[in-house]
Design brief:
290 residues, alpha/beta, seven-stranded mixed β-sheet, four-stranded antiparallel β-sheet, 10 helices, 32% helix, 30% strand, EC 2.5.1.16, spermidine synthase activity
Length: 290
């Protein structure tokens, strides 16, 4: 008798789903905050799922983590202090640790179990969590950042989707606290959701609206991440000084010799060139209340 195949399926909208075949379930437990599952898959390697939503796969996580870290580092190469909110998988820390110039990395993750699980089952992303420059804080990012004043050159909001534990990290109050926590020329980067499916697009508009309202100017750039909804993913870029992230010294970043698999300085320039439907959606968000 042939064994029954196992599949993981994520619903993107009422009429669209994404599925991958599962070889085995490696881990499954409910933490205080969310359901955590780890699967081994033949197509995408080991994958992390939180509350039924795919967070990362070994196959393409490098795209997300490189694109949430390196554009800001190329724009502002003198960054020394960094706060990562969320990011319990360790991928952001791994990429940040490629820069000798960074002196301090604070990781604020609300769910201790996510860090524990990723350390054990996803060493590909978590391998630099013990770096001497990294300090882990098990805390609510909303409350943690509220207590910081002009403390960070870069804040990376590596959150889950805007519901459950990550819901508060897409509000005007939160972005306002981030603004206060940044140094004079500090930069905020956040994962901005996908512009494609209706519910994701609405979340993207809301995030952009709040970020633009708080910082006065907000830019958006894109990446192709195959296992995220639609494969088309956006990131937000805002700085306390209002600097344009398209103006940067690409040759200086290239000279650092940092090894990446996705990010490069030519792609950096092109990532800010958005499709017309996305530009229109973001423009509408800036002028509408949510």
């Amino acid at each position: 008798m042939q064994a029954k195949e196992l599949w993981f399926t994520e619903n993107y909208c009422p009429d669209a789903r994404f599925s991958m075949r599962v070889e085995r379930q490696v881990y499954s437990a409910k933490s205080r905050f969310q359901q955590i599952d780890v699967y081994d898959t033949p197509a995408f390697g080991r994958v992390l799922v939180l509350d039924g939503c795919l967070m990362l796969t070994e196959k393409d996580e490098f795209i997300y983590h490189e694109m949430i870290v390196h554009p800001a580092m190329a724009v502002k190469p003198d960054i020394k202090s960094v706060l990562v909110i969320g990011g319990g998988d360790g991928g952001c820390i791994r990429e940040l640790c490629k820069y000798d110039s960074i002196e301090k990395i604070d990781l604020c993750e609300i769910d201790r179990e996510v860090i524990k699980v990723c350390r054990e089952f996803l060493p590909q992303t978590a391998l630099r969590m013990d770096d001497i420059r990294a300090e882990l804080h098990i805390a609510d990012g909303l409350k943690f950042v509220r207590r910081q004043k002009e403390a960070y050159d870069l804040i990376i909001v590596d959150s889950t989707d805007p519901f459950g534990p990550g819901e508060g990290l897409f509000t005007r109050e939160f972005y306002g606290n981030c603004l206060s926590a940044l140094t004079a020329d500090g930069i905020l980067i956040n994962q901005h959701e996908s512009p494609y499916y209706p519910e994701d697009a609405l979340a993207c508009q809301r995030a952009h609206r709040q970020l633009h309202a708080v910082f006065g100017k907000a830019f958006v750039y894109q990446a192709h991440i195959p296992t995220y909804p639609s494969g088309h993913w956006l990131f937000g870029f805002a700085s306390k000084s209002g600097r344009d992230p398209r103006a940067f010294d690409g040759e200086a970043w290239d000279a650092l010799g940092i090894k990446t698999r996705y990010y490069n300085t030519d792609l950096h320039k092109g990532s800010f060139a958005l499709p017309n439907y996305v530009k229109e959606m973001l423009k509408n968000a800036e002028s509408m209340g949510y």
